[in-house]
Amino acid sequence: MNALVTGATGFIGSVLVRDLLARGSSVRALVLPGENADVLKKQGVRVIRGDLTDPESLRGVCEGIETVFHLAGRVTDWGTKRQFYTAICDATGNLLQEAAGRASRFVYVSSIAAMGMGRHLKGVKESDPPRKSGVSYNDAKVDAEALVRAFHREDKMKCTIVRPANVVGPGSVWVRDIADRMMSATGVPLIDGGRYSASFVYVDHLVDGMILAAAGDIACGKAYHFRDDWRVNWKEYITDLGSWIGKRPRGSIPFRLAWMTGFVLEAVLNPLHIRAPLTRLSAGVLGRDNDVDTTLARTELGWRTRLSYPEAMEKIGAWVKDHYQIGR
Question: What pLDDT does residue 327 have?
Answer without folding.
Answer: 44
